[in-house]
């Protein structure tokens, strides 16, 4: 059997997932990249794996296929996800549940499917692609932030449970990257006039930050570093100021950080 490391990366048809899959494939991994259809694009050198993170049967079938073809799974990168734009009150419960079903429970399902193989190997790395809003608030993207906060709590707890079994669970936390997350985001189910002005300002600010965002290849390199590190860190912030934001959140007085964040997001008129 080949000694080549085997990685599964979810959501590789574009953006950060595609960049991660390319980085690992060119770095020597045998990469299985998940997409939801047989016709979806996958990066060159990546083996297509049809998988829907919302469907346990689909996941079990796909992971079984990887194990039959490759014999092992050394790395899982939970990247698949989506977003909702709108105030929390404007977002109905069904929309919020659907987002969590992908961003949080999707990662939970795939992780559960992969863990038995990693336990048998007594080795493995699981990387969760989170966000700086996994530790920061995100006005008018509140359920997206909540799903990433949930993912962070899950990952950190999992890491303590599996570390003695030779497995590590790690977080990569990108700032604004140049992706299509804004264009692909769902829109909250209803509009409430009281939020309209602030929603418009915040949305324009977020879209401008994404347009000026950094290359998703930076996230891919952070994932590769997390997978290869002899002594990995729990968290890998990625992008301009991402690491500083985490430090400021811990050390800056809460009221000062609150004012700074509202100004950055342009929540208040004149900000």
Tell me about this structure.
The chain contains 10 helices and 9 strands. With 271 residues, the protein is of the alpha/beta class. It has a 7-stranded parallel beta sheet, with helices on both faces. Strand 6 (124-129), helix 5 (142-162) and strand 7 form a beta-alpha-beta unit. It is globular and about 60 Å long. The mean pLDDT is 93.
Task: For the structure shown, list the relevant keywords.
271 residues; alpha/beta; 7-stranded parallel β-sheet
Secondary structure: elements and pairs:
Layout: E1 6-9, H1 15-26, E2 30-35, E3 46-50, H2 56-70, E4 75-78, E5 84-85, H3 93-103, H4 105-121, E6 124-129, H5 142-162, E7 167-174, H6 181-184, E8 186-187, H7 193-211, H8 217-228, E9 235-238, H9 242-251, H10 254-265
Parallel strand pairs: 1-2, 1-4, 2-3, 4-6, 5-8, 6-7, 7-9
Indicate the low-confidence ranges by residue numbers.
none
Task: Estimate the strand proportion.
Answer: 15-25%
Average pLDDT rating: 93
* Oligomeric composition of the shown chains: single chain
Largest sheet: 7 strands, parallel
Question: Helical content, roughly?
Answer: 40-55%
Cα-to-Cα separation, first versus last residue: 60 Å
Tally the beta strands. Answer: 9
The neighbouring-strand order within the major sheet is 3-2-1-4-6-7-9
């Amino acid at each position: 059997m080949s000694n080549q490391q085997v990685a599964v990366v979810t959501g590789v048809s574009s953006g950060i997932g595609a960049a991660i899959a390319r980085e690992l494939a060119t770095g020597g991994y045998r990469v299985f990249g998940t997409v939801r259809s047989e016709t979806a694009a996958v990066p060159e050198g990546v083996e297509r794996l049809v998988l829907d993170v919302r469907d346990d049967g689909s996941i079990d079938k796909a992971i079984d296929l990887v194990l039959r073809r490759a014999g092992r799974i050394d790395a899982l990168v939970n990247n698949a996800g989506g977003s909702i734009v709108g105030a929390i009150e404007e977002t109905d419960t069904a929309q919020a549940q659907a987002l969590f079903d992908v961003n949080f429970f999707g990662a939970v399902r795939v992780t559960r499917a992969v863990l038995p193989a990693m336990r048998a190997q007594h080795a493995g790395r699981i990387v969760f692609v989170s966000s700086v809003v996994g530790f920061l608030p995100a006005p008018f993207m509140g359920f997206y932030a909540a799903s990433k906060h949930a993912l962070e709590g899950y990952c950190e707890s999992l890491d303590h449970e599996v570390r003695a079994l030779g497995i590590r669970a790690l977080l990569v936390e990108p700032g604004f990257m140049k992706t299509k997350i804004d264009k692909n985001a769902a829109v909250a189910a209803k509009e409430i006039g009281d939020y309209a002005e602030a929603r418009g300002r915040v949305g324009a600010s977020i879209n401008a930050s994404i347009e000026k965002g950094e290359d998703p290849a930076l996230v891919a390199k952070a994932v590769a570093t997390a997978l290869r590190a002899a002594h990995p860190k729990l968290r890998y912030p990625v992008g301009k100021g991402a690491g500083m934001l985490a430090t400021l959140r811990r050390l800056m007085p809460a009221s000062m950080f609150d004012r700074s964040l509202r100004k950055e997001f342009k929540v208040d008129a004149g900000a």
